[in-house]
Amino acid sequence: MSDSSSCPIPLSDRWRWGSRQAISFLMEQGVDNPDILTLGAGLVDSETLPVEEVGQLVADICSDPVEGRAALQYGSTPGSPRLRAALLKHLAALEGCTPEELGISANQMLLTTGSQQLLSLLCEVLFNPGDIAFVAAPTYFVFLGTLAGVGARAIPIRSDEHGMVIDDLDREIARLAEAGELHRVKLIYLVSDFENPSGICLSAERRQQALAVAQKWSRQQRILILEDAAYRELRYSGEPIPSIWGFDRDRQHVILAQTFSKSFSPGLRVGYGVVPADLAGPLADRKGNEDFGSAHFNQHLLARALESGVYHRHVARVRRAYTIKRDAMLAAADRYFSDIPGVEWVHPDGGLYVWMSLPTEIPTNFDSPLFKHATTAEQVMYVPGYLCYTGPIEERPRHQMRLSFGVLEPGLIDEAMKRLAIAVRKFVGT
Ligand SMILES: Cc1ncc(COP(=O)(O)O)c(C=O)c1O
Fold first, then answer.
1. For residue range 332-359, what is the model confidence (pLDDT) as tens digits?
2. How many whole angstroms from 215 Cα to the centroid of ligand 1?
3. Are 105 and 185 in the same domain?
């Protein structure tokens, strides 16, 4: 008899393509190592999480047996009609128009398990292995893993202080068209507000230009823009910039992904997408195969939060708290890093991150001497910048760090930055 216990499990290519993503390691570090001061994990500020508000909302839902039962029942795959209606109003306020002027129906809104699920569903319905998505360099590293997981090719496009350089994108698509590969081009991924990791906003001009490029090259098939607006409501200074989605008047090219994770609570895992009418069905089909609906109770809770004004009061409070933290991090960067030659950082108007570049001879990778020293001797952690680029590791920039001001309170942000500067100084000029 053969020993079946030694037979390997025949895992799929999709598993292999998407395996070993850094996000899980980073989340574990943040949660499992309470002694490390973490500037790494993208967790939100615990102090401002809406514990009392959620307690009251739960009590309100459950005090009405009819609503309580409805909320505790399965919902529909695209999500609660009540929350979708409330979100149309909310989106209209963000877009500066009336819900009617949005020019969409509630059917074009899909409620998902965090916005991450929308990103993932979209990749599932759009990409065959070898199809192409354009991403900014650097960009949100979890999405790079999602693209890898479906075998998509992520082509990086240079970014400057105004976001992705759209002229470069145009040239790259022209090159692919020349090579007969235009049919492979499916998606342009843009984190329009306070990009994770760089904190940069795509300028209004570039937003319009990106849409024009997607329209221009939609010859054989439509090229979509995924506008990931996860940090849209976390602006602390400067004027809001109209969304790319808002410029797309015929609602054909842009998928807008937003989330309650950063502005209310990531633990509720509710995100939403507004999608072209002919994409709503395919996404719902896919979602039907995965979970046939995200947490229905949480959708009821958020509908109540929006309808009652609890949500808006909370976002205002969160913004005030993060403004203080952002300022604490920037002040600490000035205090501890400004005299280290070759160190630069972005001053973000919102979001959760400060993007710092070290002299190119100081790598920041997981296996770099700096990362080891910072996490052991100095007990401070950051996200190594190379994770936010695509392509062979040896060819990626390796001297940058994403520093999150989300988790720590202002005093500890200062302490963490001080420790990080001590660690960096050890390697300057080596
Ligand atoms: C740019 C960006 N998009 C999407 C997400 C996904 O967030 P969630 O699934 O919690 O909505 C995140 C989370 O950090 C993010 O930074």
1. 999 999 999 999 999 999 999 999 999 9
2. 27
3. yes
